[in-house]
Write a structure and sequence with these properties.
Helices cover 45% and strands 19% of the residues. With 324 residues, the chain is of the alpha/beta class.
Length: 324
């Protein structure tokens, strides 16, 4: 009886080892075969905006290389908080990712979400977008210097629209006013509403991503006075940077891919390779240039460090501006 009991215990032990080994091998095989189905890329912002058109173009390029569809799903609301919460709760299996941007820093700094960038695995950075300060065609200022002089002479009277409280399009004019020692009235809108309000003469200026005012600029309805990037952008070579115009400010929107914390390393590495190939392609370079974006690939480690630095900077800006 004693021998039978011992054999039973050994049998249970070896069976447990076999099951555990099979489970681990199965997980490894699943990771090795990734992706085996559609990947959801959650975009926190609305269809047709700057974030959306770029996400969809990159998803299109990456899908061809992956052999499985990457589908952009717009999950809007609360400045991006709803989307980030959804991806944060998602299973870390490589089939749900976030179209990552400075929104993660702003949402965390303003306590609109209960986590920060550390809740995600950085996959890759893809580039930067400048922010444009635009006015209607009938605005009295012929250039950015005149606009800045007007702000200084009329503290608290110039209205500047943006795409939402705490957004990058809000932070740029906040920093602009701070650097010149002036005051402006910030008017948060949705993207399309800000442009419509500008053209309707309801606000003096608007802070926007280039992609969101391209058609209005082309039609002559809107003029761009300056951009917030280090250098001028290809689509508007005659538009100066803020720095050129005497305002010491360089501040851009950044974008990339991230996944829920705990996503397998093998999956992150595979996805990183596909993103790198897409970002370095001629197809993406040409598309990005056409919408005012500067492509720049960041590997996961570099991207993670960059996002951490931006988190610190964003918290400082929001605290100093009293936006919490």
């Amino acid at each position: 009886m004693k021998g039978n009991g011992q054999r039973l215990r050994w049998g249970i032990f070896f069976a447990s080892v076999f099951l555990a080994t099979s489970f681990i091998q199965g997980m490894g095989a699943a990771r090795a075969g990734w992706p085996e189905k559609q990947i959801d890329l959650v975009n926190p912002f609305g269809a047709g905006g700057a974030a959306d058109i770029q996400a969809r173009k990159l998803a299109e390029i990456i899908s061809r290389d992956l052999g499985q569809p990457m589908v952009v799903r717009n999950v809007t609301g609360a400045g991006g908080a709803i989307a980030y919460n959804e991806v944060h709760r998602a299973k870390p299996d490589g089939y749900t990712m976030i179209w990552y941007s400075g929104a993660i820093n702003t949402l965390a700094a303003r306590k609109q979400i209960k986590f920060d960038y550390q809740a995600f695995e950085p996959i890759a950075g893809v580039g930067f977008e400048t922010i444009a300060i635009a006015v209607s065609k009938g605005a009295p200022w012929k250039d950015f210097k005149e606009f800045i002089a007007h702000i200084k002479q009329n503290p608290g009277k110039v209205t500047v629209g943006n795409s939402g409280l705490g957004s990058v399009t809000h932070l740029v004019p906040v920093l602009m006013a701070s650097r010149i020692g002036g005051q402006v009235v910030h008017v948060p809108f949705g993207t399309g509403l800000a442009v419509a309000a500008l053209m309707g003469g309801k606000i003096d200026a608007s802070s926007q991503h280039p992609a969101e005012i391209l058609s209005q600029v082309k039609a002559g309805e809107v003029r761009v006075l300056a951009v917030s990037s280090e250098k001028r952008i290809n689509i508007w070579p005659d538009v100066p940077t803020m720095k050129e115009s005497g305002v010491d400010l360089v501040y851009n929107q950044w974008r990339g891919f991230a996944a829920p914390k705990g996503t397998p390393k093998e999956v992150v590495e595979k996805m990183t390779a596909h993103v790198k190939k897409a970002v370095e392609s001629r197809e993406w370079a040409e598309f990005a240039a056409s919408v005012g974006t500067t492509p720049q690939y960041f590997d996961p480690e570099t991207f993670g460090k960059f996002v951490a630095e931006m988190d610190k900077l964003t918290r400082e800006i929001i605290a100093s501006a009293g936006l919490k």
